[in-house]
Each structure stands twice: as C-alpha cells, then as structure tokens.
C-alpha cells in the first residue's frame, strides 16, 4: 500500500513539474549560425541565404548570448525562434525571478554599425547574427519582440540598451537601413521610446504606449521585467539582388540590466509588395467609385492567382488586378515553377456620409441679445452625421477653402445666422466641405428698471405678455407677466419663449415720497443772481421753474429780477411740491429831472417786505434819506433842495436781519 502511494505521489510530482516547466520558454545553444537562419528563421524556396555568421559573449562557462528558443506550452507569442541577448541566452528563460545582469569585465565589445544607426556611443556586449539573402519577391518582413530588464522603476525615462536590424545591398558602401522602428515613424524601438506613463518624481509621460505589452510578474515565460508587443520589421527590396542583413543588440554605457530580441521562427517572409493597406484608420481609404490597380508583376515565367477575402477569383490570372470593392486581396505568384511568392493588401472604402442635421440653433446667452453667442463645435460635430466612423476627424472653417481651424468654443461673426463648413481632415480627397448653418435666437424683455414705490402705495411690475412661461422670485413664485408689490426690494422675472430661450429682467423697487422744502437761498443784488432750493425727503428729486423743464441740480443761476414759482418733483412719480422765491436788484442810477421817468430811486418788488428799511448816504457817509420798502423812494433832494449829481450809497436792512449794501448814481 505504501509503495502504491509513493508511486502516485511521484507521478503527480512529475506531472506538475512538467506542467510548471512548460510555462516558460527554453533555450538551446547548440545551433550554428546557418542552422539558426536556414532551419529557424527562413523556410522558403523564394529566397536563398548564404554567408552566415554569429558572435556574442565568450563566457568562461561556455554559454552563449544567442540561442534557439522554444515557447511551446507557454503564453509567449512565439512558439519558437531565436533570441539574441546582451547577457547569457540561458538567463532569458522564465520565470522572471532574477536579474539578468551578465557580461561584466570580459572584454565583450560593442558594435560601430549599431552606434551609427542609433546615434549613440560606448556600446558593449554586442550579439550579432548576419547573413546574405536573395529574394524572388520585392518585399520581406519578420516579427520580433524586444524585452528588457530596464523596464522597471523610472529607468524607461532615461536608459535603454540598443538594437537594430540593419539592411543594405551586399558589397554596397551605402549606410545601413534600420528596420527596427516604431511603426510609421523613423524612431528606433528602445525602452525610452516605447513605454507607458511612468509615475512618480522621476517619472515621464507615455510614449508610443500602444506598442508596449506589459510589465511582467514572476511567472512570465521569460526572465525580463517587460517587453513590447509583437512588432514587424519590413522593407521593400529588389528581386534577385543580393542583400546583407545584420541583426544586432548591445548594452549601452555599462553591462547592467540585460535586454534581448526574440525573432519569431519562420516569420521571415519574402513576398510581393502590393502597396500600403488602404484603410480608414490609416486615413487613406479609397473614395467612393474609385478603383485601384494592383500590380504583382515579377520577372520570369510565372503564373498568377488572385484572391478576395480568401476566395479564389476565377479567371483572374494576369499580373495585375483592378480593385473596385472593399476586401482583403492576395496574390500568389508561382515564380519559374520554383517557389510561390505571396502578397496581400487590405482595402476599405470611405463611406458615404449621411447628413442628418446641418442646422443648429442656440439661444443668445451672453446677456446682450445681439445675435452673437458661443457654439460648442465638439457637440455639433457629433450630431451632423449618422454614420461617422470613430476614426474620422472633423474640423470647422469659416470658408470652404479656409485653413484656420475654428476653436472648439466658437462665437459666430455674423449676427443671428452664419454658415460655417465642416471638413473631414484625416481622409484626403473623398469629402466636400459640408455647410453648417448656425442660428441664434434672441429674447429681449427690456432693460433692468428702477421703480419708485410711494409710501403707502403699491406698484405694478410687468414684462410683455405672450411668452411661454414666467417665473418671479417671489414667495410663493408667481407665474404671470405682471405682479403688484407694496414693499421695496429686488424683484426678478425669468421669461421663456417657444424656442426655449430664456431672459431675466430685474426690477429694483425703492421707497420714495414728495419733497419737503426747507429753505431757498437766494443770492441776488449781484451780476449772477441765483437761487438754491433745499429740501428733505426719502426720494430722488429734480427741479423746475416752469413746471415743464426739470433739472437734477437744485440751483438756478443767472436769474433776472422777479418773483419766481418753482417745483420739486420726485423722480419716481410720488408727487410735486411747489414753492416761490424772489430775486431783487437795486437800480444802478436814477434821473430826477422832471421828465416823469425814473424820477425816484427805490428797489422794485421790495414793497412786499414792508418792514425792510433802506438808508441812503452820500460819499462822506452822511445820512441823506431813509424810507421803508413800501414807501415811495428817494427823489434826489435833501430838506427840499435838489442834491448834486453824484454817487450815493445805500444800506438795505431786511426783516430777517439780512443787510445788503451798494451804491448808485444820481444823474441830472
């Protein structure tokens, strides 16, 4: 019984051990350069390869920095392939539970071609696989993954080992072409050019994040902290021309934190270049009713077969094919009966856009009701078409040929209605400029008002009738176009019309009352006679001398002699208070010569103040005559005798104690 239990435990241990081992890649360093190329990378009669060489680290243990790898049973994207590392190839095997950090102090050199391609210096620990090839096709490609221990902490912001796939015609003195680039750019793939957001004080923004795969946990198939997604290196080549390719990776500056490139087994493809895919996502789809002539012509005695969406196109055996509909197209070229070279291309057509709304109306909300307001063009662009692909970009312009993109928040430049134009900016040549009408609805209910409320009364506040709704800030809320108020305060009404536009008007209600006249100060007997009316009262007042023309000032100037009536009006309509005042002036001369004209000297209008005393003196201060205001004036005599023509002085003592002095002339 114990023996059976022991056997069972042994079998389970072996099973789980094998299952666990299958989670990780394994490496085999017994492959020669020729075997790595011919048996692993390239398995196609459409290319011939030669001139193989491989070099790397000379570890004392005999281990190598390059190897064949097997990913069967693991989650690694490649089932097999080759690995080139800046450390031991055996250290690239998972799990990711140690730091691959090999190659210190062993005289392991870098590579000048790599340095020139990347614009760097001081490389070391270079691993290089290179060979020559001739292809019958005009395009070749292969798949790879770049992995590195430098995908940790803030290192991606500053550090990266370098690698390149260098291609040129064999024997050429031209510079190498680097194929290890971020897709659709000239940027080399490095830790520092492909990574997500690195947080923290020493962090940095994401760059080409879509090409980064993941930071790895312990149970990863490889022993690296992170890696890119599967990328494709590719190049256009000339058929039947000898090329040299150099696959190289190296540490930069120091040996620390190893990196590796994994190249998928059998991924070297030598085929036909039918051109770039024409995709909406790439911004280059075919326009409606366009066609595209595919040309797969190859030198030699060849046969051609064309396919659409994997289906053989019967009768299409020419080297060219004219595309008139979307789909996945492929060609198989049997070259001289020795190999079959393939090419493929993906074709999409720009859709016919269905316009469902090209007029947008908005209320004037900036408070001026002048037909100008701000439109959110981001919201508008999502409402124009019913079938706009998510990858399409729309920009707006003021004219069909405009080049200045309108801002997201755009205020129309033509009042009330304006046409702007929507353009699809990332798909060239397929779409017109679509006219978009912007309309501005206005709602005016008049300017804010200040209303006077007379003490003890009520007042009606109103706005025009006929709108959809009204809402006053009263408690409770009133919903009519007018309300009665009996107390001071600030009252607002919000009005909404049938277009959904709203406007608010404010009434400031202030208590008021008629004026109480407290005094009238008259400045007369002067060259500029004036009167200042003084009042009290809870109101704002204006003043008039005729009851028709009013002024804000309570002073009237340059007044002629006379009796005046005045009026003080409350500006808020709470009443008019009347009053009177008198403007006096003493004559400058009189002529007592018996002609019955201007025979006596007196002060006109002063008779209304009978207790006022007027006293006349000669130039020496001698009292000549004195009389009351309601008595006849002075006739120019003293004790019955006519006085000589001369200047005389007067003193007027008013009933209220006011004293006015002056002089006049007696003329004979």
Written account of the structure:
With 668 residues, the protein is mainly beta. It has 6 domains: 20-270, no CATH class; 272-347, Immunoglobulin-like; 359-441; 449-509; 516-583, Immunoglobulin-like (Sandwich), CATH 2.60.40.10; 589-666, Immunoglobulin-like, CATH 2.60.40. Helix content is 6%, strand content 39%. The protein contains 4 helices and 45 strands. Strands 1, 3, 4, 6, 9, 10, 11, 13 and 14 form a 9-stranded antiparallel β-sheet that branches. The chain has a 5-stranded antiparallel β-sheet with strand order 2-5-12-7-8, with helices on both faces. Strands 39-45-44-40-41 form a 5-stranded mixed β-sheet, with no helix packed on it. A hairpin with a 2-residue loop joins strand 42 (637-638) and strand 43. It is elongated. 29% of the residues are buried.
Q: How many domains, as an integer? A: 6
Number of helices: 4
- Based on Cα principal axes, name the global outline: elongated
Spatial extent as radius of gyration: 53 Å
What is the strand content? 35-45%
Cα-to-Cα separation, first versus last residue: 168 Å
In percent, how helical is the residue content? under 10%
| Main β-sheet description | 9 strands, antiparallel
Extended strand count: 45
- Uncertain ranges: 1-21
Average pLDDT number: 92
Secondary structural class: mainly beta
């Amino acid at each position: 019984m114990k023996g059976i239990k022991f056997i069972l435990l042994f079998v389970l241990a072996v099973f789980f051990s094998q299952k666990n081992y299958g989670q990780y890649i394994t490496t085999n360093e017994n492959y020669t350069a020729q075997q790595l190329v011919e048996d692993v990378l390239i398995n196609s009669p459409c290319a011939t390869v030669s001139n193989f060489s491989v070099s790397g680290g000379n570890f004392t243990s005999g281990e190598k920095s390059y190897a064949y790898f097997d990913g069967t049973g693991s989650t690694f994207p490649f089932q097999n392939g080759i690995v080139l590392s800046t450390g031991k190839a055996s250290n690239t095997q998972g799990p990711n539970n140690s730091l691959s950090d090999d190659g210190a102090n062993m005289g392991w050199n870098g590579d000048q071609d790599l340095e020139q391609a990347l614009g760097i210096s001081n490389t070391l620990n270079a691993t290089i696989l290179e060979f020559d090839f001739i292809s019958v096709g005009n395009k070749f490609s292969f798949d790879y993954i770049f992995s590195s221990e430098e995908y940790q902490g803030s290192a991606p912001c500053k550090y990266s080992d370098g690698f390149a796939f260098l291609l040129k015609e064999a024997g050429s003195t031209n510079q190498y072409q680097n194929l290890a680039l971020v897709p659709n750019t000239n940027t080399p793939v490095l830790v520092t050019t492909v990574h997500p957001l690195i947080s923290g004080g020493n962090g940095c923004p994401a760059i080409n994040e879509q090409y980064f795969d993941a930071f790895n946990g312990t149970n990863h198939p490889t022993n690296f902290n992170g890696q890119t997604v599967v990328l494709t290196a590719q190049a256009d080549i000339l058929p039947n021309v000898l090329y040299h390719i150099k696959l190289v990776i190296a540490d930069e500056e120091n040996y620390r934190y190893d990196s590796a490139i994994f190249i998928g087994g059998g991924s070297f493809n030598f085929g036909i270049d039918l051109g770039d895919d024409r995709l909406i996502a790439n911004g280059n789809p075919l326009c409606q009713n366009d066609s595209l002539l595919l040309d797969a012509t190859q030198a030699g005695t060849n046969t051609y077969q064309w396919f659409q969406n994997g289906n053989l196109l019967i009768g299409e055996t020419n080297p060219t094919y004219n595309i008139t509909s979307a789909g996945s197209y492929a060609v198989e070229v049997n070259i001289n009966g020795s190999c079959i070279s393939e090419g493929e291309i993906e074709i999409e057509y720009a859709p016919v856009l269905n316009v469902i709304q090209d007029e947008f109306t908005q209320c004037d909300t900036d408070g001026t009701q002048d037909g100008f307001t701000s439109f959110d063009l981001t919201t508008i662009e999502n409402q124009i078409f019913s079938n706009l692909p998510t990858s399409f970009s729309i920009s707006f312009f003021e004219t069909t040929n405009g080049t200045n993109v309108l801002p997201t928040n755009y205020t129309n430049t033509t009042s009330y209605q304006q046409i702007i134009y929507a353009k699809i900016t990332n798909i060239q040549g397929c779409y017109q400029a679509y006219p978009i009408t912007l309309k501005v609805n206005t709602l005016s209910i008049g300017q804010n008002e200040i209303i006077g409320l007379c003490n003890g009364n009520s007042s009606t506040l109103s706005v025009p009738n006929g709108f959809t709704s009204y809402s006053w800030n009263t408690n409770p809320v009133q919903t009519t176009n007018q309300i009665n108020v009996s107390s001071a305060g600030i009252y607002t009404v919000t009005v909404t019309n049938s277009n959904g536009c709203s406007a608010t008007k404010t009434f400031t209600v202030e208590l008021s009352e008629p004026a109480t006249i407290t005094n009238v100060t008259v400045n007369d007997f002067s060259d500029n006679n004036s009167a200042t009316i003084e009042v009290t009262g809870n109101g704002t007042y204006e003043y008039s001398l005729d009851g028709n023309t009013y002024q804000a000032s309570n002073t009237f100037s340059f007044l002629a002699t006379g009796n005046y009536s005045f009026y003080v009006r409350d500006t808020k309509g709470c009443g008019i208070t009347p009053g009177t005042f008198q403007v006096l002036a003493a004559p400058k001369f009189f002529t007592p010569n018996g002609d019955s004209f201007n025979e006596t000297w007196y002060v006109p209008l002063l008779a209304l103040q009978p207790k006022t005393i007027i006293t006349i003196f000669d130039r020496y201060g001698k009292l000549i005559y004195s009389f009351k205001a309601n008595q006849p004036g002075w006739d120019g005599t003293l004790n019955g005798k006519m006085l000589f023509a001369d200047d005389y002085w007067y003193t007027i003592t008013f009933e209220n104690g006011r004293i006015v002095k002056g002089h006049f002339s007696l003329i004979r």
